[in-house]
Amino acid sequence: MAASCGDGQNTRPSKGVSRILLKLESNLAERNFYEAHQIYKTLSYRLSNQKKYDEAIDLLYSGSCRLLQSQQIESGADLAMSLLDVIGKLDNDKRAGHIHKLTTIHELIPPDGQERQLFICKAIKQTKTSSHTAGSPELHGAVANTLWKEKRHSEARYHFLYSADGENCGRFLIELHHSSGSNPHEVDLFITQMVLQLLCLKNASTASVTFYAYVDNHPDVVKGPPYLLPLLNFLCFLLSAVNEGKLAVFTILCEKYNFSLSRDPLYKAYLDKIGQNFFGLPPPKNSGGLFSGLLNSLFSGLDESEDLPYSVSQDAPSTSGISAQSPRILASSDLD
């Protein structure tokens, strides 16, 4: 495994704790992992009850990493969940300082088991704030890049959507287009869907960086602007209109590019939401009905369950085209 972590022990333990730590090291050296796991749990519980949260966090982080690196997946993941419980007792600003620990543990947990899904779902919830209701963008970005490296494209795409890493998101989409077996003429559809969804989440800056990272580096895109593909020109103008808050330009763009936008029936719904987000437009009057129900089902995402909106058992990207990347990609709460 590529990920690594230090022991995390930043404070000098008391004499009593020092003796326990010596016993812990002895058990680890003898590969008595069950006993080591019990010591980690007992000592971290004591430290947490004494409100020595930093010491408890360091201990659990070190223990989780060491057990996971020793292929003790269940025990290591259990300590990781305990780590999240302690981090949850901190103020939001202090939680942010431990994001790197969570991303390291995520990389160490094998991708095909439920332990990773349970851990990252809980970690995301622990990093939610009033300004980041879907969890820390830094955490999402790090997780996305790990999943991208593992070629778990559907999962990576979901986390890139909630990250602030537009540069890597754009480059990831290039690989996704090439690996999915899609028609070369769909090169514009991959970036259009992502940019519109990012704008639905009010993340205009990441949408812009993602767009230019994609069009500037994709070998099948003739450099612009202007671009040969109409949807790419539309996105270029749309991002400018959003940045400048020009409602008239937005309205004209939707009219002039109506034919190209008809290639995906969801584009209209995305643009309705973008109009509300950035130009103060009211929701469409005919927002109910069958199409609305379909849209809501596509937009369902993280909720109060312990599940992420994708299957952890998938080990290859879909090759059925761009529509396969649509289901359950946006949380309905993020669109309100």
TrEMBL record:
It is found in: Cytoplasm, Cytosol. It comes from the Eukaryota. Pfam families: GET4. Keywords: Cytoplasm, Transport. Residues 311-326 have a biased composition (Polar residues). The keyword Nucleus does not apply. One of its GO terms (biological process) is protein insertion into ER membrane. The keyword Cytoplasm applies. Its main location: cytoplasm. One of its GO terms (cellular component) is BAT3 complex. Residues 308-336 are annotated as: Disordered. Belongs to the GET4 family. This is GET4. It comes from Bugula neritina (Brown bryozoan).
